[in-house]
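Observation: inputs received (chain + iron/sulfur cluster).
Thought: call the complex predictor directly.
Action: predict_structure
Action Input:
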Amino acid sequence: MIKLPPRTGQIIYGPIHSRRIGVDIGINLLVQEGKTCNFNCVYCQYGVTGNPTSYNKLKTGWVKPELVYTALEKELSKLAETGYRLDAVTFSGYGEPTLHPKFPSIVENVKKIKEKYYPNAKLTLITNSSTLKYKRILKTVKIFDQIIAKLDAATDKTFHSVNRPVNKKLDIQTIINNLIGLSSTVEHLIIQTLLFNTINQSLISNTSVEELKALSEAICRIRPKEVQIYTIVRAPALSGVKPASESQLKELKKYIDERCGFEVNVKIY
Ligand code: SF4
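Observation:
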C-alpha cells in the first residue's frame, strides 16, 4: 500500500504503509473543507492552503475531540481483535496538527487509547516545526515517542519562498533554535527535509549549493536522532515544482556527513 492522504472530513485514516514510518494509523485533526495550515508549501501534496491561519487565530471549524476518541477507539479495537500489526499512530493529516486549539488534551487522550490496544506502536507527530516556541506545544510534543519535524530551508529567503508561512515575520533561525532546544531534551527527534527543483522563474528551489550547505549546518546544530531526505512523489501545490534528483538528495547527505563531526543517521527516500 502507498500512503494516501486522508479524504476531506476523515478523522482516522489507514492503516497505511509509509516508507518512513511503517504501518500506521493516521489522525487528521483538520477536517474542514480545504487544508488548514500556517504554511503554504509550494510542493504540498494537499494543494494550496484553503484555510490559512496562524497559531491560536482560527477559533471555529475544528474537529471535536470526542469524535477523535470515538473513531480511534473503534478503529484500534477492530484492528487489535484481528491481530493486525501496527508500528505507529500518527498525527498528520490535512494541515498542521499542532494548530488545533485542544491539541495538548487530544494528544494525552489519544496516547491512553493507543496504549490500551497497541502499547508498542509509536505515538508519532509530523509537524512543520513552526509552533515549538509555544510552551504548551513544546510540553505536548515531548509526550510523543517520535517527532518528525520539517526543515526545508535554512535561510529566510528560501524559507519564505518554499514554505510561505502565513506569518510573514516568522524567521527560520527562530525555528532552528527551537529545534535545537527540543533536540537537547528528547531522544526521538527526526528532521525531515524535502528537496525540489523548479522551472518557475518566480520560485526559489532549495537545492542550490549555498542552501544545501546552510541546511547541513543547521541540521548539525540541531543534532537530531535521524534525518530523512526525500523529494516530491505526488502532484505539488504549484506547477513548475519538480522532484530533486537522486544526486541532489545525496549531496545534502554528503554535506551533513562531512560537517557534523559526529555520526548522524541520514536516510534518503
Ligand atoms: S506544512 Fe505540511 S500541510 Fe502545511 S502546507 Fe506545508 S506540506 Fe502542506
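Thought: report the result.
Final Answer: Residues 65-81 form the longest helix (17 residues). Residues 35, 37, 39-41, 44, 46, 49, 95-96, 128 surround iron/sulfur cluster (CB under 6 Å).
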